[in-house]
Amino acid sequence: MVLELFAYALALAGGVGLGLPMGDAVVGAGALLGGGLGLVVVVVGQVIGLVINWNLCRHWCRAWIVRRLQRRQRKRWLLATMDTSLSWQSMLLLRLALFPMAMVSACCALSATSWRPYALTSLVLVLRFALMVQAGALGVAAMRGTATGPQQLFLVVATTATVLAAALIGRSVRRRLLVPREPDARV
Fold first, then answer.
1. Predicted model pTM
2. Is residue 84 part of a domain?
């Protein structure tokens, strides 16, 4: 059983690291492993995958993309965005938005954003993963007719926490955007 869990986490990490859409695998972990164990396996796999994705984009792909953009006259404006460092509020909002996670990770890694804020803001993804894993576990339990009150409660808590976090971060970003400030390299 431990070997299968490790293999599932590694397969998930490889997919996330390569930028593949892995939402089905996250929901599948809940369906196959249950809510608690599925969440642990998903978090381990996602953490490893996000580290792989960051390093691929930052250290291997960045120079290649910069060279391609420099050769294209109409796309040179994108070079300025690669020198922009995202604020932690912007990164949190991007993480909670329903954008493809691989795209957000790659954009953060290609920008001038440093590793630490990227890693810390990625912790908010645990709420999103909990929601997806619990949806898978609850779906299987509902099909079997064994759905329990605690399972349903955990799904409601995960959904509420995700929506509340997104609302609070959205409000913070909106306030920052409405306040005039001096121009700098942070978005």
1. 0.74
2. yes
Q: Is 62 among the domain residues? A: yes
| Residue 166, pLDDT score | 77
In this model, does residue 179 exceed pLDDT 80? no
Give whole-number Cα distances, 169 to 25, 52, 93, 96, in Å.
Answer: 27, 27, 6, 9
What is the C-alpha to C-alpha distance for residues 32 and 23, in angstroms, rounded to an integer?
A: 14
Binning pLDDT at 50, 70 and 90, where does residue 185 land?
Answer: low
Cα–Cα distance between 127 and 55 in angstroms, integer?
24
Give the structural domain span for 107: 2-178
- Domains contained in the chain, number: 1
- Count helices and strands (H / E) in the chain: 10, 0
The closest alpha carbon to 44, from 129, 157, 116, belongs to 129
